[in-house]
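Most newcomers find our protein records easier to grasp once they have seen one. Sequence and backbone structure share a record, each on its own labelled line. To make this concrete, we reproduce a full record directly below:
***
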Amino acid sequence: MKKYYWSVLFLLFMMYMGGCQENVGENAYQNGEEAVKETMNSSVKVDPSINLSSEKVVSVIIEFKTKPAQIAILEAEAQGVDMTLEKAKEHVEQSHQAFEQELHAFLDDNEVKYRIKHRYKTAFNGVSIELPANEIKRLTGSSVISKIYPNQEIQLDPPIQPSDQM
């Protein structure tokens, strides 16, 4: 139960952070504005702090539309639908296979160099990948991808304990 609690907490935190990124400076605002225009027709949400015009190799985390198995089961139960863990894991695997096929179509066929650093399947469904920032636009045509975040380390401060509990 404790492992599941932290997985859900992490997922909620990622969703919260996805909506709370701030742009700093004029260039960040302009880059964010360009990213919105370029991805407006896409269902893929790209964090506006990613400079999509840069040729620099960046590390990003890609979140898939398919939820991790445990989350998918909880959502199905909430809707009154029966789903087995095996079926939910199968959906996660299918999303990774579909992503691989799309990578081939979007990047390999265009001779774009990239490197998948990690595959996430438990608390989060997606991958971390390194590729040139200006090639991220190619991925916005994906049927698998939900969101693209910069891969950056963040630090949370522990909650402040009330003085009567110390």
In short: The radius of gyration is 18 Å. The mean pLDDT is 81. The chain has four helices and five strands. Residues 157 and 163 are 17 Å apart (CA to CA).
